[in-house]
């Protein structure tokens, strides 16, 4: 299918289209609709990929690839009101295909630390950041991705399950194991 150019100026009605309608337009080759989708979700997808790869040189390529894959798959979109979890799922699949390492994560998960104590001492904050980064590197990719989608990106377990194309029970299991492993790793670091 050859993409067609969208009209230069969209009406105010078109600007208020929901994600399912925008994806229908994308499926029909409307490049302007793909641009609309990109404008809506570029930042959250970029944030997710930045945290997942810790590789600023590669992140923009992955973001663009995510939206190109979304354009190819738009005809199969399931019609959920928000396509953010669906886009996150595409990004995860790209990460899997490229077999990127998650060793260099730089995410501070405030739910695992007492943020009041960290904020009081900048040196402690830096040490905590390094501790969390090292702890994250010990967790398997599948557990880290589930943890990142739920704890950092704020998706519900149901949304994460849909994005990963796995049962919600599997997401819960991975989250439980990831949290337990992180706490154990952080506890070991504190005893040194």
Descriptors:
192 residues, 10 helices, Rna Polymerase Sigma Factor, Chain: A, mainly alpha
Folded structure, characterized:
By secondary structure, this protein is an all-alpha fold. It starts with 11 loop residues before the first helix and ends with a helix. The protein has helices at residues 12-15, 19-27, 31-53, 56-73, 84-98, 115-120, 122-137, 141-152, 157-164, 168-191. The protein folds into 2 domains: 12-98, Orthogonal Bundle (Rna Polymerase Sigma Factor, Chain: A); 110-191, Arc Repressor Mutant, subunit A, CATH 1.10.10.10. Residues 1-14 and 100-118 have low confidence and may be disordered.
Topology, please?
Blueprint: H1 12-15, H2 19-27, H3 31-53, H4 56-73, H5 84-98, H6 115-120, H7 122-137, H8 141-152, H9 157-164, H10 168-191
Helix pairs in contact: 2-3, 3-4, 3-5, 4-5, 5-9, 7-10, 8-10, 9-10
Could you give a short account of the major beta sheet? none
> Beta-sheet strand percentage?
under 5%
Number of domains: 2
The assembly state of the depicted protein chains is single chain
Mean pLDDT: 75
| Rg on CA atoms, Å | 19 Å
Number of helices: 10
- What is the CATH class name of the largest domain? Mainly Alpha
- Structural class, judged by helices and strands? mainly alpha
Q: Give the total of beta strands.
A: 0
Ends: how far apart? 60 Å
């Amino acid at each position: 299918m050859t993409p067609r150019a969208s009209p230069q100026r969209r009406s105010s009605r078109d600007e208020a289209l929901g994600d399912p309608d925008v994806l229908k337009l994308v499926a029909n080759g409307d490049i302007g609709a793909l641009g609309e989708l990109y404008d809506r979700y570029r930042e959250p997808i970029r944030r997710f990929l930045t945290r997942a790869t810790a590789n600023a040189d590669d992140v923009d390529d992955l973001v663009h690839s995510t939206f190109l894959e979304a354009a190819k798959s738009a005809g199969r979109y399931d019609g959920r009101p928000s396509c953010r979890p669906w886009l996150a799922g595409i990004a995860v699949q790209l990460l899997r295909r490229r077999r990127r390492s998650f060793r260099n994560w730089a995410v501070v998960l405030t739910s695992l630390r007492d943020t009041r104590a960290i904020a009081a001492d900048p040196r402690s904050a830096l040490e905590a950041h390094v501790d969390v980064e090292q702890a994250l590197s010990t967790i398997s990719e599948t557990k880290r991705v589930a943890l990142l989608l739920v704890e950092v990106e704020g998706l519900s377990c149901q949304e994460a399950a849909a994005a990963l194309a796995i049962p919600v029970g599997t997401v819960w299991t991975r989250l439980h194991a990831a949290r337990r492993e992180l706490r154990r790793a952080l506890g070991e670091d504190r005893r040194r």
